[in-house]
Amino acid sequence: MKKFKTIIIDDERLARLELRSLLSKHEEIEIIAEAENGEEGIAKIKELQPDLIFLDISMPGMTGFEMIKQLEILPHVIFVTAYDEFALKAFEVNAMDYIL
Questions:
Q1: 77 DSSP 8-state letter
Q2: Which of 30, 85, 89, 92 supports an S-S bond with 3, CB 3.0-4.6 Å?
């Protein structure tokens, strides 16, 4: 079975823990790193070259949308956020999914 190397990028530690817990039930998802802001996320994506990222939209310093604009090679993106008003924009940047 193919495993998807995955990075969770969210500024809230509890949100990262909850997502990690939910994803642990899916053996095809291999969480290789976490990041708590856009800058750290970019560095980890460049270093580890994940297949998939779970990305928060609203983070201090840089939004998830601003972050992905800075990447030359973009992994598959699933946005994870508490705000439904960004859904259309998420799919305009070719997000795989949008989880509220």
A1: E
A2: 30
Instruction: State how far the alpha carbon of 70 is from the alpha carbons of 3, 27, 75, in Å.
Output: 26, 30, 12
DSSP state for residue 79 in the 8-state scheme = E
- pLDDT tens digit sequence for 46-72: 999 999 999 999 999 999 999 999 999
Pair 29, 51: CB distance under 8 Å: no
Q: Give the SS3 label for residue 73.
A: coil
The Cα 42–Cα 22 span in angstroms is: 23
Number of H helices, E strands in the chain: 4, 5
Distances (CA, A) of 75 to 30, 41, 45, 46, 94: 14, 12, 8, 10, 11
